[in-house]
């Protein structure tokens, strides 16, 4: 995967530092710490301050290409998100559908951190049924 094109495709200005950070995340199979990214950058002779790495990870997270996991005590791990997995919420009354981001990668990371288990299933598609806000309001006012 060409990381320059990947960043440009998400309207992110391309720099050597950003390319290095996203390449490191792409090479990792699990969420990693800022310190890990910092050390990997040093190993590649890319000199970045920790604050620069934090700022770029926050930008990537805001753009939806990196997921951020709260480990507690103000520490976070980060993992690249190449393809956002989505789920559908369907109203059982009006049948309106809303697409939501799948939180499974976050749940998998929490499970792995707490238990050491890795989820074996790669794909999980859900269509959840419920009542949308508009229909719930209409039911209250009947």
TrEMBL record:
Keywords: DNA-binding, Metal-binding, Repressor, Transcription, Transcription regulation, Zinc. Zn(2+) binds at residues 91, 94, 132, 135. Gene3D superfamilies: 3.30.1490.190, Winged helix-like DNA-binding domain superfamily/Winged helix DNA-binding domain. Pfam families: FUR (PF01475). One of its GO terms (biological process) is regulation of secondary metabolite biosynthetic process. Transmembrane segments: none annotated. This is Peroxide operon regulator. It comes from Clostridium liquoris. The lineage of its organism: Bacteria, Bacillati, Bacillota, Clostridia, Eubacteriales.
């Amino acid at each position: 995967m060409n990381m320059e094109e990947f960043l440009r495709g998400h309207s992110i200005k391309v720099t050597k530092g950003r390319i290095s950070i996203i390449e490191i995340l792409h090479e990792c199979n699990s969420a990693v710490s800022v310190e890990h990214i910092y050390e990997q950058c040093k190993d590649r002779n890319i000199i970045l301050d920790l604050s620069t790495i934090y700022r770029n990870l926050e930008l990537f997270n805001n753009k939806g290409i990196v997921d951020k996991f709260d480990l507690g005590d103000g520490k976070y791990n980060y993992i690249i998100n190449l393809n956002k997995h989505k789920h559908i919420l369907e109203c059982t009354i009006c049948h309106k559908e809303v697409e939501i981001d799948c939180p499974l990668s976050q749940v998998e990371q929490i499970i792995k951190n707490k238990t050491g288990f890795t989820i074996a299933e790669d794909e999980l598609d859900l269509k959840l049924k419920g009542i949308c806000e508009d229909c719930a309001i209409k039911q209250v006012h009947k």
